[in-house]
Amino acid sequence: MDYSKAAPLNNKLLQLVDWRISVKDDGLAVIRFEGVTGSPLIIKQEHAQLFLEAYECADLVPELNKMTFVVQALVAQCEDLKVKYHEEQVNRRKLHNQVQEAKGVLNPML
Question: Is the pTM of this model over 0.70?
Answer without folding.
Answer: no
